[in-house]
Amino acid sequence: MGLDPEVALESSLGWREWGRHPIINCYASARTQLIDAKFTYRLGIHTTPIGRALKYPAIGLERVSRRLRSAYQDLLFRRYTALHGLHYGPTGRGYQTIAGGSHVDHLARYHGQIPRLAVFAYEYADILRYEDGDTFVDLGCGSGQNIRFLAERYPASLVIGTDMNADAVALVRGCEPSASVQLSVGDMRDAEFLSLLMSDRVDHVVLSHVFSLIFAPSARETRELRQGFIDRVVEGSRKSVIIIDNFGKRGELSIAIEQKQRAHVTDDVMSYFSKHVEGRAFMVESESSQAIIFSRKN
């Protein structure tokens, strides 16, 4: 009786690879055995004596790993909720290159920026329905890359920009020639500030790589904060909301360290729009980014 084809193939591949990367292959083999032990146990599939012996240690290790990851994630949520304000504060790294510098330097920076919003405004015009004369609000406008685009493309429109960093807002204020641009310093995570900003409904809301920075001291509080935020901007917009950012898998929420005082959160942002039957949410992409567009029904 010949050797099982699968065993023969694994043996052939294994011996060739073991000589190249013994440590990595040892890890891969052990991990494969643990994953397979859990899989066969849960589905009631016949397995090897090794698989039967490993099923309980594998399940136990999975539970411990899940608890450790949850505790680690909540630690990061607590820590970076506090550090986030420092990163974008007067002495933080967020806009360190803006403070100081000449007006000529500021103008060069402002007009040399590439607006992330532009490609979506062109490619998905039928969904966004931007028109000259509409009102726009850019939440977390930073140094104004999208403010410049909107003010130039829609000169009859009121464009409102806000950011928590005073230096960034000052740069936009000092460089933007349009009188139709209104700017303010504020933290969009603050419910009172957001409600005041959105008290007069606008046509369009723009968030460009800032939604990933909206989080609270725990995963549960983060979901609640994000859902409340989406509810508020949807209610306050007449036509559309666009979130340009990185998004996570369905049902998953995670926080990752980016640098000493900054972390970012990824999760299933589409799910926050599911309750809003007054419009439809679309996932779209460009060559360099992706976005979720919520478009109100006509």
From TrEMBL:
Methyltransferase domain residues: 137-216
InterPro entries, alphabetized: Methyltransf_25, SAM-dependent_MTases_sf
Pfam families (UniProt xref): Methyltransf_25
Annotated protein name in UniProt: Unannotated protein
Protein source organism: freshwater metagenome
